[in-house]
Design goal:
By secondary structure, the chain is of the alpha+beta class. The chain has 6 helices and 8 strands, in the order ββαααβββαβαββα. The chain has one domain: Gcn5-related N-acetyltransferase (GNAT) (Aminopeptidase). GO terms for molecular function: acyltransferase activity, transferring groups other than amino-acyl groups.
Length: about 190
């Protein structure tokens, strides 16, 4: 889905994902980065272009390139957006391993959730994580998202096996506390 949303703060800038980002994304996508995704790991720029084209063609998905210091260091999305019902998910997220454990992920999530709750007025932001992806589970939990449950056999992994999905969410009345914790983290660790 094409959109014109740009979000900026705390040392990151989220811009609409475009084919021009494929070269930079292809420079760091590998098995570690792609762990937990349902599609096979992209192998080169042509595969990453297909990933970008698929993201742009998906209804109710707002895909972003993540820029830090002017360099494309990842991608993230709003998806399954249903503003009439006041809900959406944040995901399809992957970053250059050089920025793992830095301010980048919490800054992106702060920007996205601020837009979701503040601009769109949603009641619920959800995160779906492949049940074996410990790194992503830890990151979502650290955001303050509450565990909701396991959907057994919910997804088909790239290797064809059935995998479970874990759901987490933050509700509108939980957002002020989660936002405060994210802002504290960023004040202690990241650029402003």
């Amino acid at each position: 889905m094409l959109h014109e949303i740009t979000l900026e703060g705390h040392g990151v800038r989220l811009v609409p994902l475009a084919l021009e980002h494929a070269d930079a994304l292809a420079g760091f996508v590998d098995e570690r980065v792609w762990a937990g995704m349902t599609s096979p790991t992209p192998r080169g720029v042509d595969d990453v272009r297909e990933v970008v084209e698929s993201a742009l063609a998906t209804p109710a998905r707002y895909a972003f390139a993540v820029l830090a210091d002017g360099e494309c260091v990842g991608s993230t999305s709003f998806y399954d957006v249903d503003l009439r019902m006041g809900r959406l998910e944040i995901g399809h997220t992957y970053y250059d391993p050089r920025v793992w454990g830095t301010h980048v992920n919490p800054a992106c999530k702060l920007l996205l959730m601020t837009h979701a709750f503040g601009t769109w007025g949603v009641a619920r932001v959800a995160y779906r994580v492949e049940a074996r992806n410990a790194r992503s589970i830890a990151a979502v939990t650290k955001l303050g998202a509450q565990p909701e449950g396991r959907l057994r056999g919910h997804r088909v992994a790239a290797d064809g096996t059935r995998q479970d999905s874990l759901y987490f969410s933050i509700l509108a009345d939980e957002w002020p506390g989660a936002r405060g914790r994210l802002e504290e983290r960023l004040a202690a660790t990241g650029p402003s």
